[in-house]
TrEMBL record:
Its EC number is 1.1.1.94. The gene is gpsA. NADPH binds at residues 18, 38, 108, 140, 255, 279, 281. This is Glycerol-3-phosphate dehydrogenase [NAD(P)+]. One of its GO terms (molecular function) is glycerol-3-phosphate dehydrogenase [NAD(P)+] activity. It comes from Teichococcus wenyumeiae. Belongs to the NAD-dependent glycerol-3-phosphate dehydrogenase family. NAD(+) binds at residues 14-19, 140, 255.
Amino acid sequence: MSPFHGIGRVAVIGAGAWGTALALQALRAGAATALWARDPDRALAMRAARENAAHLPGQLLPAELRITADAEEALEGADLALLVVPCQHLAGMLPRLPALPPSLVAAKGVEHGTLRLPLEILADARPGLPAGVLSGPNFAREVAQGLPAAAVVASLDEALRQGAAASLSSGGFRLYDHDDPVGAEVGGAAKNVIAIAAGAVIGAGLGENARAALVTRGLAEIARLAVALGGRAETVAGLSGLGDLLLTCTGGSSRNFSLGLALGQGRHLAAILAERNSVTEGVATAPALLARAAAVGVEMPITAAVADVLEGRMDVVGAVEQLMNRPLRQEV
Ligand SMILES: NC(=O)C1=CN([C@@H]2O[C@H](COP(=O)(O)OP(=O)(O)OC[C@H]3O[C@@H](n4cnc5c(N)ncnc54)[C@H](O)[C@@H]3O)[C@@H](O)[C@H]2O)C=CC1
Ligand SMILES: O=C(CO)COP(=O)(O)O
């Protein structure tokens, strides 16, 4: 257990939509909060306008929120760091940071090539650092506005998960502590892939029944992988799994769902991505998740279908046909 005694200061690393929203929440919960943006010009513009125009336009950033591109300054005296850069950039960003306090990763994905989950990336870069994940059904915009939301803080470190959940909760944001970080990370990474599938069936006009079946069978394949990696199936049935699937597979604001929707309508992946200035984690995660599952002998047919569509080996209708024609079996 870490000597974690509560939070006076929080450093949020990554000034995308989610980092900005979490910084606002930390502030609301009473922590002195700094938000680190890697680009000095962006930090300057955000400080001047009190707005993150690129990722959370229209949301006021109060004067008490320190915004800086200097990582030393952001992390000085911090009791907790929230690491909120996209999964594929986490490993590249960590060497730019000085010593970290106990940290929660809020990215959702699997790293291309190495097949690591975010906490594994952090553990490799900072061995022994008390760490956990923050994950749940949370659109950044709503959390920034203080609308009601819940999530989990999952860590093997009891003091960290309980202290962080208690200190970052307030008003509309309710954090449950959890002792299964693997289950939480697998759920968070995989729901983005299933959300692409859900969007694709809706975009292709295959119907609401198809979406409900995909989400439910998606949950089953996520649970299989979580268990194979040392997590628990019940975690996948909670906020970080089922909760986030419900949000991203039905909420039109999900970037993963909307990318799937456009693919299902026949648009090309490159064209969809070219129009976006924000991250769609499921695209890089789908093949990485599939490879990670294969390495532990777990079948993930929906993830495989999404990877096939993303990599141009199949169209949406063909991929769904293939899923429908798999051998019949017992549900569980
Ligand atoms: N936006 C949301 O509602 C939520 C997002 N998340 C997760 O949080 C993570 C961050 O997502 P968002 O804040 O939405 O991102 P975003 O799409 O709003 O912004 C992209 C972020 O990535 C950073 N970035 C781009 N290239 C980079 C590089 N080479 N090195 C370091 N940073 C780089 C940008 O500076 C920016 O901070 C993702 O893993 C996402 O799945 C989790 C929950 C909610
Ligand atoms: O993780 C999220 C909500 O919990 C955000 O989902 P998208 O990245 O699909 O927008």
